[in-house]
């Protein structure tokens, strides 16, 4: 009888030990991302990079590159496969300077952070670049991405004494 109980306990222990938590496969999304890069339009051929970000806004290591397609600053990256919902857009190059009425003498790098579940048309501009560091700080201190974006944009606009309650995301 003792042998039977010992055998039953051993069998159950081995059964539980061999059980593994079933891991769900990552849900991957295949997207087309398009938009404009502007501080004055970036010129044709300027490089743009889209980096996939983790929930804490750290990079996953996946990057996708393209170039501005025209002198209006338009870009389009097709069929990119993402496992995460967050991306960083980075544009670095020359732009049309409205003050001097010619192309800029130096390159400028602008950024945007976005949630691909919310939109696939994303613009990179001065406001999206100004809010980037603040959004990262807020997310790293416990804020949800959407709330951090809203707070950062509101704070930046307040610096310029602009107070509007319903303003779309900076990258819209």
Topology of helices and strands:
Blueprint: H1 2-18, E1 29-36, E2 47-53, E3 59-67, E4 74-82, E5 86-93, E6 96-97, E7 102-103, E8 108-115, H2 126-140, H3 145-159
Antiparallel strand pairs: 1-4, 2-3, 2-5, 5-8, 6-7
Instruction: Give the integer mean of the pLDDT values.
Output: 86
Strand content: 25-35%
Query: Numbering strands along the chain, what is their spatial order in the largest sheet?
Result: 3-2-5-8
What share of the residues lie within helices?
25-40%
**Radius of gyration using CA atoms only:** 24 Å
Our measurement of the CA-to-CA distance between the termini, rounded to an integer number of angstroms, reads 73 Å
The rough form would be described as globular
SS element count, helices: 3
Biggest β-sheet description:
4 strands, antiparallel
Give me the strand/helix succession. HEEEEEEEEHH
Based on helices, strands and strand pairing, what is the structural class? alpha+beta
What low-confidence regions span 5 or more consecutive residues with pLDDT below 50?
Answer: 16-25
Q: Could you tell me the number of beta strands?
A: 8
Distinctive features:
two-stranded antiparallel sheet; 31% strand; 172 residues; alpha+beta
Question: What does it look like?
Answer:
By secondary structure, the protein is α+β, with helices and mostly antiparallel strands. Helix content is 27%, strand content 31%. It has helices spanning 2-18, 126-140, 145-159; strands at residues 29-36, 47-53, 59-67, 74-82, 86-93, 96-97, 102-103, 108-115. The strands form 3 sheets. Strands 3-2-5-8 form a 4-stranded antiparallel beta sheet. Strand 2 (47-53) and strand 3 form a beta hairpin. Helix 2 (126-140) crosses helix 3. The termini are far apart.
């Amino acid at each position: 009888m003792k042998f039977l109980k010992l055998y039953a306990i051993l069998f159950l222990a081995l059964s539980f030990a061999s059980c593994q938590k079933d891991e769900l496969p990552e849900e991957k999304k295949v997207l087309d991302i398009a938009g404009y890069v502007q501080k004055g339009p970036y010129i044709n051929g300027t490089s743009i990079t889209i980096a996939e970000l983790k929930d804490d806004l750290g990079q996953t290591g996946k990057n996708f590159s393209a170039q501005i397609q025209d002198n209006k600053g338009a870009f389009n990256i097709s069929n990119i496969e993402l496992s995460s919902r967050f991306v960083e857009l980075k544009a670095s190059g020359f732009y049309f300077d409205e003050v001097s009425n010619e192309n800029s003498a130096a390159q400028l790098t602008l950024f945007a952070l976005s949630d691909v579940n919310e939109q696939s048309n994303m613009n990179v501009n001065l406001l999206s670049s100004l809010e980037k560091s603040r959004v990262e700080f807020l997310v790293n201190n416990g804020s949800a991405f959407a709330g951090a974006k809203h707070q950062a944009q509101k704070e930046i606009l307040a610096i310029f004494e602009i107070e509007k309650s319903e303003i779309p995301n900076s990258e819209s």
